[in-house]
């Protein structure tokens, strides 16, 4: 495992320590899931049995009461063993962490969800890849509620999910275009997973598309309303503040794993006067990723949702994303031609780390957002 002192310190917590206990079994299966594009179902079953899906639920509601930094350490540690399992878990974890954040300030809106996650051991998945300031899909007013139709993409963990937290646009005659947030049971007959996840890396996450056809959501099932196309406190909480430090903890863990593999390989190579320079560059890129990620975690753990916090977190996402990609690219070079073979761990880690490019906001979106804020422009224009 990585020699990073922060990771060793974090592992004193029960949740990262549990990942060290479960991880070797996950690592033994990782090549199979990567080769046949299969979801990491066995790993999710073990996580469920171990109570990991309730880690972020407050103790008062029956959960594991993990702190936000502990959740990040948990995901970062798990990524050393299986990036797909860690990334799929991060998507559940950020939903529950955001709900717990809200519960600590106003228990009523999220208490039922959090209690159910703890008592029923639920896996909650999200359609965040399809929804941003606006949302994909439509909500049509019907008697007693809404009829939902949508196609959602990148629904990580779908094969194991119990509830889909998602959104749709309702053309409210009084408020205008409004984003509705709600949960859909994945057992609903109007929910149809698609066999669509055939990708470069992170092949075991089960991030399928899902079709939602004429699903009824009662009025009481609407968890949140926000204006479409405009920032709001809800948007600044998630995706602005909570999700990205958790998601990018996974990519930091992958970069650390690649660093360790490359370093072990380099020590066995013949003398090469240029090798220390390559390793030094890899070392510096990893140091940058760690510092930037630590800053993200602190901002999310201690900050309040708003424009400045969103810009802070999103800037960290760009810095960490760029640095971890460079770490793994340099690791391939340090290890030499052996890393080009599909039998190499580094070859898989290189493919998995490419996912860091695609989580929103991608770097161009972040640059535009932070630049507008720095200039004093209206973010919503």
Could you say what the CATH architecture of the largest domain is?
Answer: Up-down Bundle
Number of E-type strands = 8
Based on secondary structure, the structural category is alpha+beta
Question: What is the alpha-carbon Rg in Å?
Answer: 21 Å
Q: Strand share of the residues?
A: 15-25%
**Widest β-sheet, arrangement of strands:** 1-4-5-8
| Tally of individual helices | 12
Q: Would you identify the regions where 5 or more consecutive residues have pLDDT less than 50?
A: 1-11
Question: In the CATH hierarchy, what is the superfamily of the largest domain?
Answer: Butyryl-CoA Dehydrogenase, subunit A, domain 3
Secondary-structure blueprint of this entry?
Elements: H1 5-10, H2 14-36, H3 41-49, H4 68-79, H5 83-105, H6 108-120, E1 124-126, E2 138-142, E3 145-155, E4 163-172, E5 176-185, E6 191-193, E7 208-218, E8 222-227, H7 233-237, H8 243-266, H9 275-302, H10 307-335, H11 345-353, H12 363-375
Parallel strand pairs: 1-4
Antiparallel strand pairs: 2-3, 3-7, 4-5, 5-8, 6-7
Helix pairs in contact: 2-4, 4-5, 4-8, 5-6, 5-8, 8-9, 8-10, 8-11, 9-10, 10-11, 10-12
């Amino acid at each position: 495992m990585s020699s990073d002192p922060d990771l060793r310190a974090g592992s004193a917590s029960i949740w990262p320590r549990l990942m060290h206990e479960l991880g070797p079994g996950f690592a033994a299966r990782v090549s199979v899931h990567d080769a046949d594009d299969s979801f990491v179902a066995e790993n999710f079953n073990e996580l469920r049995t171990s109570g990991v899906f309730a880690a972020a639920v407050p103790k008062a509601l029956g959960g594991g009461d993990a702190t936000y930094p502990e959740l990040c350490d948990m995901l970062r540690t798990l990524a050393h063993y299986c990036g797909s399992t860690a990334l799929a878990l991060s998507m559940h974890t950020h939903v529950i962490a955001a709900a717990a954040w809200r519960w600590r300030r106003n228990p009523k809106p999220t208490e039922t969800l959090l209690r159910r996650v703890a008592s029923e051991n639920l896996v909650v998945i999200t359609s965040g890849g399809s929804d941003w300031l606006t949302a994909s899909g439509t909500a049509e007013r019907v008697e007693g509620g809404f009829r939902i139709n949508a196609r959602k993409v990148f629904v990580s963990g779908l094969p194991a999910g119990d509830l889909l937290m998602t959104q749709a646009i309702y053309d409210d005659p009084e408020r205008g275009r409004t984003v509705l947030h709600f949960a859909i049971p994945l057992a609903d007959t109007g929910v149809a997973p698609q066999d669509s996840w055939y990708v470069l890396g992170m092949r075991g996450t089960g991030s399928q598309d899902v079709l939602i056809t004429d699903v009824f959501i009662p009025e009481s099932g609407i968890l949140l309303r926000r204006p479409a196309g405009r920032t709001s406190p809800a948007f600044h909480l998630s995706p602005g503040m909570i999700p990205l430090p958790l998601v990018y903890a996974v990519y930091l863990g992958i970069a650390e794993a690649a660093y360790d593999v490359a370093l072990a390989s380099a020590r066995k190579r013949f003398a090469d006067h240029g090798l220390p320079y390559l390793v030094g560059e890899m070392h510096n890129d990893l140091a940058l990723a760690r510092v930037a990620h630590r800053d993200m975690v602190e901002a999310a753990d201690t900050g309040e949702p708003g424009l400045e916090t969103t810009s802070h977190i999103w800037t960290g996402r760009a810095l960490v994303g760029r640095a971890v990609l460079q770490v793994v690219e340099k690791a391939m070079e340090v290890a030499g031609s052996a890393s080009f073979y599909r039998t190499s761990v580094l070859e898989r880690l290189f493919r998995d780390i490419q996912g860091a490019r695609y989580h929103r906001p991608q770097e161009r979106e972040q640059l535009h957002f932070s630049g507008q804020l720095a200039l004093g422009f209206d973010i919503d224009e």
